[in-house]
Amino acid sequence: MKAIVMTGTGDVDVLKLQDVASLQITKPTEILVKIKAAGINPIDTKIRSRGTFYPEYSSAILGCDGAGIVESVGSQVTKFQVGDEVYYCSGGLGKPNTGNYAEYAVIEEDYVTFKPQSLSFAESACLPLVLITAWESLFDRVNLTEDQKVLIHGGAGGVGHVAIQLAKIKGAKVATTVSNPDKERLVRKLGADLPILYSQQDFIQTTLDWTNGKGVDVAFDTIGGKTFFDTCHAVKVYGDIVTILEPDCSIEKLKSARNRNLRISLELMLTPALMNLTEALKHQTHILAQCASWIDEGKLTVHLHQTFPLQEVSIAHKIIETGSVTGKIAITM
Q1: What is the pLDDT of residue 251?
Q2: Whether residue 216 sits in one domain with residue 291
Q3: What is the CATH number of the domain that holds 105?
Q4: Are residues 170 and 280 in the same domain?
Q5: DSSP letters along 262-316, please?
Q6: Residue range of the domain that includes 47
Q7: Rg (CA), the chain
Q8: Do 302 and 214 lie in a common domain?
Q9: How would DSSP label each residue in 56-89?
Q10: Tens digit of each residue's pLDDT (9 = 90 or more) over 12-58
Q11: CB of 137 closer than 8 Å to CB of 220
């Protein structure tokens, strides 16, 4: 089969289109998926530039997200049959015989679910990682509830634009930061109550004004760095802040968070895959199944920014690395 192989660590030149050995089902609970599209995520570009999670292997196929058609099933598979359309977040972290920048993938059936019927393969492939990240952050980490106020950073980004929608499904009120008027229009369309153009407005003061000086119940940081620490000032006393980045912490930097008795939660949706946590991986599959239902009910959607053919994945990586993508990017096979 054809695949994009990461032949080393570095810039996009290490991504090579190659013929690799065809994949085979080796366990009775696995399925073989003919991949129609794969999502591109910032983690892909970080792995390419810094190295995989499994440095003992010399090459890798990247891509955590995929969508495609079931080509064959193991003898004990009960959930799927040949021809089913599926989507999933699996592989792409450096282990051999995984990754979705390829024509096929072999995956445990418990880690796959039916794709949204109302979306294309490219749209579906864009969603798994960001849906799981946003769900775990807002629902599992802080149990966002109706009428709470939440501040979501980067509302027009991959994670941010689905986080807005999940928060609205829960009945929360959403403020979100964006960089320009086009992104402001997008987040309003997605349900944001208060778009904040951070280049023109102080997001801390704007958030405090919106909450009558109290601060939001929950803040969701998708930016990291200084933004994480500044955001602490915009969260109410005894409130929650969740970040998907690793804070560069010190006692002095966390003084505001400590004084306000904030609960800080760290979200890394890759943990179940890296630690082989079976039940957590099944939970993530349940997330995708529920979100597929919401999508087909018209409660949730994806903003697909652009698609590229498999052989042009390097271009997609370059665009992701600009840090200014609206929504998501996919590659098609």
Answers
A1: 62
A2: no
A3: 3.90.180.10
A4: no
A5: PEEEE--TTHHHHHT-HHHHHHHHHHHHHHHHHHHTTS----EEEEEEGGGHHHH
A6: 2-127+273-332
A7: 20
A8: no
A9: TSS-B---SEEEEEEEEE-TT--S--TT-EEEEE
A10: 999 999 999 999 999 999 999 999 999 999 999 999 999 999 999 98
A11: yes
Using the structure block, give the residue that is written with the tokens 């634009």. Answer: 161
Q: What is the mean pLDDT of residues 83-111?
A: 98
- Between 128-135 and 158-169, two packed helices, what is the crossing angle to 10 degrees? 50
Do 189 and 77 fall within a single domain? no
pLDDT at 142 over 80: yes
The 8-class DSSP code of residue 8 comes to S
Strand partners, 15: 6
**What is the C-alpha separation between 260 and 268, in angstroms, rounded?**
24
> Any idea how long the chain is?
333
Burial class (CB in 10 A: 0-12, 13-18, 19+), 97: middle
Q: What is the pLDDT of residues 155-200, one digit of tens each?
A: 999 999 999 999 999 999 999 999 999 999 999 999 999 999 999 9
Residues 232 and 149 in one domain: yes
CB-based contact 106:23 (threshold 8 Å): yes
Helix axes 128-135, 278-296, angle to 10 degrees: 100
Question: Residue 77 carries which side chain, given as an amino acid letter?
Answer: V
Number of compact structural domains in the chain: 2
Phi-psi region of 83 (alpha: psi -120 to 50; beta: other; left: phi over 0): left
Report yes or no: 127 and 87 within 8 Å, Cβ to Cβ: yes
Are the CB atoms for 172 and 152 separated by under 8 Å? no
Task: Check which CATH number belongs to the domain holding 184 and give it.
Answer: 3.40.50.720
> 147 and 217 share a domain?
yes
**Environment class of residue 225 by beta-carbon count within 10 Å: exposed (0-12), middle (13-18) or buried (19+)?**
exposed
Q: Are 13 and 44 in contact, with CB atoms under 8 Å apart?
A: no
C-beta of residue 225 within 8 angstroms of C-beta of residue 248: yes
